[in-house]
Amino acid sequence: MKDYLKVDGLxxxxxxxxxxxxxxxxxxxxxxFGLLGPNGAGKSTTMNVISSLIEPTKGNVSIDGMDIVxxxxxxxxxxxxxxxxxxxxxxxxxEENVKFFASLYGLKGKALSLAAxxxxxxxxxxxxxxxxxxxxxxxxxxxxNIACGIAHHPKLIIMDEPTVGVDAQxxxxxxxxxxxxxxxxxxxxxxSHYMNEVEDICDRIAIIDRGKFVAxxxxxxxxxxxxxxxxxxxxxxxxxxxxxxxxxxxLSRLPDVKNARADExxxxxxxxxTCKDFTLYxxxxxxxxLPICGLTSESMNLEDIFIALTGRELR
Length: 315
Fold this sequence. Notes:
Helix content is 34%, strand content 28%. The chain is of the alpha/beta class.
């Protein structure tokens, strides 16, 4: 899988303020790449440079080998943008909106009509083609916003908070459509404040803060940058006089166990993130005549990682 987007040493200054400070990363072809960060971290500036809306102060950005500055017009033809703020004309119909935006990429005639029809069908709005946005629900407007951004079949799609303020059904439809775009070969850059969405659809995730990348990788790789362990909680029933401390000592010496303790009728083992098989621990407990009443494995989630890397303070 080749690198479709390459960002090398990107810097963007606004006067004396540095919004993006020398970030470098690549996005592979056919990948959904999550870009996360607190408000004001530099996400929007980064996406605006990639989409060629603003020029970088320093550094290079290339899309499928095309320099975003020197070959701007050529590069723009493979980019689709779905902005957070709805980019729709309220007095045009859904079909007219899609046709307008697709025409900006050179589509016309039958090709334009076909592209608009395909885009509306893709987002589930074929039966709303002649309806104006002002008469649509919030979820329908969001889906129409996506149709306008993908009708010209872009290879790189930038999606900024595409599910903000929508109902659960529309959210599921939008997330499913993004996965379908990936299956069709599109490369997607995705931002959202809904961490469960990012966990669900993104292949890799980058966290940006104060204009710099603080971490980048799969969710498992991000977890390993913050913690190398997870909590295994085993519910049991300690009978009167059972030597709990003795059992805890034995468990603490088993492979992959970093720490062990008991909390009432629960045994808590801190084990390595890579530990997948808990059979040895369970067998050791049952050989002592204790029942296994429940088992849960708790590792850090994306929200935990995000807060650990960027801090809890609002900015």
